[in-house]
Amino acid sequence: MAAQDIPGTGQQAGGPTHRSTDIPLDERRRMRHESRTSQTYKAFLKYLRDVGQFESEQAAQQAAFSVLCVLEQRLFGEEDNDMEAQLPHKLRELLVRCDRHEAGPPPHKFGRAEMLAMVSTDLGVEAENAEPIVRAVFSAIQAQISEGESNDIAGELPTDLRDLWARAT
């Protein structure tokens, strides 16, 4: 009896059931990891665009970068590391001091007005437009981390920033 092609597979009936590939296993794993990382990041940006009503993915990404940079300047101790551990890999890359702040002072205490002013300056938007941006990014971050971690971050923030963080959800 002759082997027949299985439609849509390129294999013959009774042939091998595993995929034959010239790509080494480690490379295939790396590619799958990058694909999942990219998908998670894209989902974060889509959520952020929907919540923040950003015009483009690039605008959402710039907002995330700005707010995460400022938030990183406000968190002390291990809290930034704890939050970072729960974020998708591509977001972890954003949770570092941006180039503009890298040479600046270490994390320091500041409140809502200073945070909004820093984001406003960084994004080139009016001060009154910075708050919805911060709220949208905070909401997207909270969608990525556990409730316990969200509570830990809230505990490190002054009352006026805690209110902004808490009302983001």
Provide an overview of this structure.
The protein is mostly helical. The chain has a single domain (28-166), classed as Globin-like (Orthogonal Bundle). It is 65% helix and 2% strand. It contains 9 helices and 2 strands; from the N terminus they run E-E-H-H-H-H-H-H-H-H-H. It has a two-stranded antiparallel ribbon with strand order 1-2. Helix 3 runs antiparallel to helix 8. The protein is globular. The chain starts with a strand and ends with a helix. The mean pLDDT is 79.
Q: Termini, distance in Å?
A: 65 Å
Number of helices: 9
The top-level CATH class is Mainly Alpha
Which strand order spans the largest sheet, edge to edge or round the barrel? 1-2
Q: Write down the Rg.
A: 22 Å
- By CATH, the topology is Globin-like
Shape: globular
H/E element order: EEHHHHHHHHH
The residue ranges in which pLDDT falls below 50 over 5 or more consecutive positions are none
Organism: Corallococcus coralloides (strain ATCC 25202 / DSM 2259 / NBRC 100086 / M2) (Myxococcus coralloides)
Pfam families: DUF2267
Region (Disordered): 1-36
Biased composition (Basic and acidic residues): 19-29
Keywords for this structure?
Globin-like, two-stranded antiparallel sheet, 169 residues, 9 helices, mainly alpha, single chain
How is this structure best summarized?
The protein is an all-alpha fold.
Itemize the secondary structure elements and their pairings.
Blueprint lengths: L4 E2 L4 E2 L12 H28 L4 H18 L4 H8 L2 H6 L4 H4 L9 H12 L3 H16 L4 H10 L2 H8 L3
